[in-house]
Amino acid sequence: MTQFHLIKPGTLTVGTYTGFAPVTWRDDDGTARGRDIDLLRAFADKWNLNIVFHFFPFKQLWQRPGNNEIDIAAGGITPLESRKTPGVVWSKPYYTVQRSLLIRATDREQYKTMSDFSGKKIVVTTGSTAQLDTEQRKPTNACIIYYDGNQAEIVSQLLDGTIDAFAEGDICSNYLATTCYPDQLAVTDLHPMNEPEHFVFAVREASGDHLLNALNTFIFDHCNDY
């Protein structure tokens, strides 16, 4: 069997984030869930590896493999130039998203683009591409609120009128609007970033080329299954 140079031999140690359902989240009993999680569980099974998950804030999650804390960081990470980190290599892309705003369904005629949010409150995940996009495009007097981790709490604030929008990738916004809160939420301001926004895994370089190559092969063969 190919020998991976893992932090703990025989165990794939993954760092992830709790607030990007359906990509990554944590259920009520503390178990890691999501598309990223399912893909990595299947990869670990293929190579007869144990797998453990640790939860971190999203901000600078991709740096943790380079700090030798984890073998892989997973959580809807886009390989921005500003995120290049010593000791970290990117996997091949496995998903592509667009930017979007999650709003109340009753506001879908009022809020159609970012320019409609003058004087309004928009929540973003700290350190995310949603933060970058919103900061670049928002009206001058729109208020950005930074949060980390609890989608349900933010949705509750959206529904009760405390905030006006939640900036997320379309995979998350569509999931919340159609699966979790049908008829209560809607998606607006759907648009791509200037560069296509691909999701990748951040891999500890010291874990070796064998791990990265095996993961890339698995992504190529199975990314559409999750």
From TrEMBL:
Cross-referenced CDD domains: PBP2_peptides_like
Annotated InterPro entries: Solute-binding_3/MltF_N
Matching SMART domains: PBPb (SM00062)
Superkingdom of origin: Eukaryota
Protein keywords: Signal
Pfam family, any one: SBP_bac_3
Keyword Protein biosynthesis: no
Protein name as it appears in the record: Solute-binding protein family 3/N-terminal domain-containing protein
Species assigned in the record: Rotaria sordida
